[in-house]
Design goal:
Blueprint: H1 2-12, H2 15-24, H3 43-53, H4 59-66, H5 71-87, H6 92-101, H7 109-113, H8 116-124, H9 130-136, H10 141-149, H11 151-156, H12 161-169, H13 176-192, H14 194-204, H15 210-216, H16 222-229
Helix pairs in contact: 1-3, 3-5, 4-5, 5-6, 9-10, 10-13, 13-14, 13-15
């Protein structure tokens, strides 16, 4: 079945799109996606393939797919994992264990953002969340981003404490992909409870990286944005 899936992926790959994606996801020397290989498959098309095959792909085949050198194959593996996780209540833990054991292959921001809160976020909703604090303390950029973006599920369900702990833990991170992720979720938190965002900004706006701050205040009126930017 894996051979059929890969053949379908090959048939929808686009060489020119691959060139665009390679530049967009920073695959050049010294960039965060250095060496990653794209073949030019959009997320909707990858999701369509994942939906077609998720029932028939076993975990051994999924391991082969998620460890592929080709970015969109890893993406498809994660989308299959989400389908399997969502459709099964009895065996969800095995899919979470699989996800956590393969974080080295979840190595760009799109792979993180499309998967972590739909898997880890849902799974940890009513469970101990200490694994996220461990991921936040990782030396791996992508595991750190997973710890942040997973909190999207909690924020959407009006639970903010886990995210706020991680945001403060990673406040002085050096990479802008962490700044953007925290700023993004701060903005989402503000949609649910503006006072939580305002409290965080009053405490940290003078020390936050500017990218993080700008992301977090995007929805404020211009005069309020200027207030925080000039503090």
């Amino acid at each position: 079945m894996l051979k059929n899936l890969i053949k379908d992926l090959e048939n929808i790959s686009e060489r020119e799109r691959a060139k665009i994606l390679s530049r967009f996801f920073k695959t050049g020397k010294g960039e965060y996606g250095e060496g990653d290989i794209f073949v030019g498959i959009t997320v909707p098309k990858a999701r369509s393939i994942a939906k077609k095959y998720y029932k028939d792909i076993n975990m051994e085949e999924l391991q082969i797919l998620v460890s592929s050198e080709i970015h969109e194959y890893r993406l498809t593996a994660l989308l299959i994992l989400i389908f399997k996780f969502t459709k099964s209540k009895e065996t969800q833990k095995q899919y979470i264990d699989f996800y956590l054991s393969n974080t080295r292959y979840i190595n760009n921001w799109d792979l993180v953002d499309l998967s972590c809160y739909k898997l880890l976020g849902v799974w940890l909703h009513d469970k101990d969340k200490s694994i996220l604090f461990k991921l936040a303390e990782s030396s791996n950029l992508w595991e750190q981003r997973i710890s942040i973006v997973t909190c999207m599920h909690f924020i959407r369900n009006n639970e903010f404490d886990t995210f706020l702990i991680i945001a403060e833990k990673l406040l002085f991170h050096k990479h802008d992909l962490i700044h953007k992720a925290i700023g993004w979720l701060l903005r989402e938190m503000g949609k649910k409870e503006i006072s939580k965002l305002e409290d965080f900004l009053e405490k940290h706006c003078t020390e936050m990286p500017r990218t993080m701050l700008r992301y977090s205040i995007e929805r404020f009126p211009k005069d309020v944005r200027q207030y925080y930017l000039k503090k």
